[in-house]
Design a protein that fits this description.
Layout: H1 18-26, E1 29-33, H2 39-42, E2 54-59, E3 73-76, H3 79-89, H4 98-110, H5 124-137
Parallel strand pairs: 1-2, 2-3
Helix pairs in contact: 1-4
């Protein structure tokens, strides 16, 4: 997903954004695509996504499904094909996500990615911003 898109939460886990981690903590449905749920993402696995009543996992490697985190539903295969199939299945599904989107936007405002813009040292978030600007002009 384009990291400049308003729905992007960027990276999850110990090297990710606070708002991505809080969103996963608050979600009731989690869909993971190509995620290993390793310790750098899930931390304490038993406490990861504690409110999620449904966890779906799509991965091309069957060995990753249920390896760390127990899931409710899984699909082994190419992510593009799996997502296309899921979108076909929801044609008549109507749902209002406005409350969730408002919640996520509030998390982004409260836990904004920030860095010392005056520092002479390389700031990781600045590097990410620069890569986003480059990829917006010329997709990577």
């Amino acid at each position: 997903m384009d990291t400049t898109h308003e729905l992007s939460l960027k990276m999850l886990g110990m090297h990710g954004t606070a708002y991505a981690n809080y969103a996963v903590e608050d979600c009731d449905f989690l869909i993971a695509i190509g995620s290993r749920f390793d310790d750098r993402v899930a931390g304490k696995v038993q406490e990861f996504a504690p409110k999620a009543r449904f966890i779906a996992h799509i991965d091309i490697d069957a060995a990753e499904i249920g390896k760390v985190k127990v899931v409710t539903w899984a699909h082994v295969g190419d992510a593009k094909t799996a997502l296309r199939d899921l979108l076909q299945g929801r044609k008549n599904f109507k749902k209002d996500y406005s409350r969730w989107l408002s919640h996520v936007q509030a998390l982004k405002r409260k836990h904004i990615m920030n860095y010392d813009r005056e520092s002479q040292l390389i700031q990781p978030y600045h590097v990410i911003e620069c890569l986003n600007e480059i990829s917006a002009v010329r997709p990577l």
